[in-house]
Every structure is written in structure tokens, then in C-alpha cells.
Amino acid sequence: VSVLATIGALAQVSGATMRPYVRELLPLLLDALRDGGAAGKRQVAVSTLGQLVQSTGYVVLPYIDYPPLLSILLRLLNENSVTRFEVLKTLGIIGALDPHSHKMNQLNMKGEGNLPADGVRGQRQVQEGEIPPQRDGEDHELVVELLPSSGLATSSEEYYPTVAINALMQVLRDGSLSSHHLMVVRSLMFIFQALGLSCVSYLPKVMPVLFHVMRTCEGGLREFMFQQLTVLVSIIRQHIRKYLDELLALVYEFWGNAHLMQHLLRLLEELSRALHDEFRSFMPELLPRCVGALAEAERSGDYSSAHHVLHALEEEHLHLVLPAMVRLFQPGVAE
Fold first, then answer.
1. Can you tell me the distance from the alpha carbon of 316 to that of 326, in angstroms, rounded to the nearest whole number?
2. Which residues, other chains included, contact 192 with Cβ-Cβ below 8 Å and sequence gap of 6+?
């Protein structure tokens, strides 16, 4: 105890000249703080820690260099009033830790955090556009972030959308939380609408997850997600071209589903508006389906989707569906 008190007094006298010895002294102070059998020793160690940090200007960094420190100090708040006073004083001296940095500290203590940057993580690196695998029993907090936010400051405009989208993606990738997926997709689209074209930078990580969920989810959620994809196309316009092949593959996969037809046609209509001439190269494959949709409208008497078909077609292709259109010109169709 006397040695610890002497270190604190020496730090006050020496000031910044003690800085080179901080990394040698802090592990000793941490050991003293962990000593469960000596309350007086812990109290002196807390006081010495505050004196050392204050004198050397080594603020905030102790939390980064020694991740368990904050948890240890918070536990000491449950002790007697004198120790509690010293802990609060020391917390004030060390300074505030960014919440995201605290989360990364927690990951570091569990063998995660910045290890991927060193190439030593026990989990393979995730390639762009790939959905990271979820191991059975794995803590969801430890899943690698789709959108790295550790390099962003809280003052950055990208910080909060990035953190929010990461949290939503973790829920969306978890099949056991499928009851929440509809709300997740709704929240995600609300964020994208607020961001406008700024959301484009998030799409390379988000779109593969959405496509995967759409192929595996139940019908009601899939219908809602096709609606939201139409909204997304209206937001990002020509930037959807990067995902057009996968998007059309989804459309073709679920084309025969009567409950989805109207939403699929609306999506094609929005794609045609967004891409204009670029959409023409896909018309040879789409035209037979569009003609089939008009024939089905004639057969069933439900013409609600016919105008979506016509809006999705370019003018130069209208003559190809003219016979099917003419068959719709009968009494009652206009109404």
C-alpha cells in the first residue's frame, strides 16, 4: 500500500516525466485493483491511478490499452463511500470512452476486435457481397460487422447510420429472429429513404443479405420485401444496375406466384423508369413473360396489373405485345 501511495505522490511531483513508465506501472495497479482481499489496497490503487493519469496526461487511452479497466472501476463503485469517491474522481480524470470503442474493448477481451486486421482471427475473412456464416451458439455481438464502423468518429455523418444498419443486419441474418424481419426491413428502408442517394455506399453489403432472406422467408414477408425493393429502386435510380442481374433472377424465380405478380410488375415498371435504355437488353427475356401476364389478365378477368406491364415495356417493343393488348379491348375492360 505504501509503495502504491509513493508512486502516486511521485507522479504528482514528476508530471510528464513519468509518461515512459506508465505502461509498466498500470499492470501493477490493475493487479492491485483486482485484489479482492484488501479494500484499503484497492482504494489506494484507485487514487494512485488517478494521480498517474492526471500527471502524465494519459487520458482515455488506459481504457483502450487495458480493456478490463473500465469494468473493474465500475465494480468498485459498489464499495464504501471513500472508495466510491476515489473511483468517481478517477473516472472523471481518465475521461469519457466512446460507446463504440467500449464495445470493441469487450470484443478484444473475447479474442475479437482488431484481430482481423492482423490476419490472426479464428474466422475466415468475409469477401465483399458474401453473407458471413453464423456458427451455432455464437454470440450475435461477436459476428463480424458487415459495415466496419470502428474507424468512424461519432461526429461523422456516417457513424450512426452505419451502427444502426449493422444492428439491423445482425437481426436479419439470424433465422431464429425471423418474427422481427419485417420490422427490420421496414426500418432499413426508412433509413435509406432518409439518406437518399447516400445509402448507395451501404448497398454492397446489404443487398446480398436481402436477396438471401427473400429466397428463404415466408410468403408474406417476401411480398412486403418486393414492395420495398420497388421503393429502393425509386430512391437509388440508376445505381440499381449493379444488382440488376440478381434482382431479375429473383423476379423470374417467383414469376408464377399469383400473390406476387402485381408487385413484380411494379418492380419491373420502376426498373424501366430508372434505367431507360439500359433496361432494353433484358427485354427479350421479359417480353414472353409480359405477354403471358396479359394473357392471364384476359383469362382471369383481372386487369389490375395490365397497366404495369405496359409501363414496363419500351415503346419500340409495344408492337410485340399488340395482339395480346387488342384482345383486352372488349366491353368492361376499360372499367
1. 17
2. 199, 202, 232, 235
Torsion sign (Cα): 264, 266, 268, 270: negative
245 three-state secondary structure:
helix
Residues contacting residue 279 through CB under 8 Å, at least 6 positions apart? 271, 272, 314
Helices 203-216 and 181-195, packing angle to 10 deg: 150
The one-letter code for the residue type at 269 is: E
Do the beta carbons of residue 76 and residue 84 sit within 8 Å?
yes
CA distance 7 to 29: 10
Alpha-carbon gap, residue 284 to 129, rounded angstroms? 28
pLDDT tens track for 26-38: 888 988 888 777 7
Lowest model confidence (mean pLDDT) among 84-93, 103-112, 135-144, 310-319: 135-144
> pTM of the prediction?
0.52
Q: What pLDDT sits at residue 149?
A: 54
